[in-house]
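Tokens as discussed.
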């Protein structure tokens, strides 16, 4: 019986790829660099926005300075446009309500920067009482470093063995494994099944409703 379910955000709760692609392409264009097709961004996201910018920049331009320039353009634009096309995956709102009704604690652990994480959760899930909503915070290493999970466990007062971690990427599976919580990979997100299988999660599911059967 799990007392806490920690969800990744991008690719797990929300399909955010169109807005991430649009905002990154905006920053690239402003700096005079080539842009990318939306589909390409599925393999660039997941490790925080600095890594996203590094991956999106052309070879030979992946400098710390350019990452900083990208960040200065991306964040103000994304803050305005991060809910233009993003949407919850089908069944997610119902799943969260079902778990909440069963008194299961809910939390979010994302590599998206904190302000955007909080905004999107409040916008798309206003009726859900999340026990903790953590994005990328200054001074805290991004996933797969397990610190974000440890912080959630401490805030919720729940043990690792009582916790299910749900995510769509290898980064998420690594995070769960390093934190000692039960890993559940989902196939409806950004990354292919094979990436998840490589980490041998306890569960690998294809349907949103299946999460409720694991708690």
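Sequence:
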């Amino acid at each position: 019986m799990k007392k806490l379910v920690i969800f990744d955000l991008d690719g797990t709760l929300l399909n955010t790829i169109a807005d991430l692609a649009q905002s990154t392409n905006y920053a690239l264009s402003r700096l005079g660099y080539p842009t990318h097709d939306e589909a390409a961004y599925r393999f660039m996201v997941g490790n925080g926005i600095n890594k996203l910018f590094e991956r999106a920049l052309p070879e030979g331009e992946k400098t710390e300075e350019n990452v900083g320039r990208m960040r200065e353009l991306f964040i103000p634009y994304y803050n305005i446009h991060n809910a233009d096309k993003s949407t919850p995956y089908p069944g997610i709102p119902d799943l969260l309500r079902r778990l909440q009704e069963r008194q299961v604690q809910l939390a979010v652990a994302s590599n998206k920067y904190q302000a955007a994480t909080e905004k999107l959760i409040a916008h798309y899930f206003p009726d859900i009482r999340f026990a903790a909503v953590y994005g990328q915070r200054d001074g805290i290493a991004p996933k797969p470093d397990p610190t974000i999970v440890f912080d959630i466990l401490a805030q919720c007062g729940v043990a690792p063995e009582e916790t299910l971690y749900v995510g769509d990427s290898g980064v998420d599976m690594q995070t769960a494994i390093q934190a000692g919580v039960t890993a559940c990979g989902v196939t409806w997100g950004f990354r292919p099944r094979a990436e998840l299988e490589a980490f041998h999660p306890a569960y690998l599911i294809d349907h949103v409703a299946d999460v409720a059967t694991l708690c």
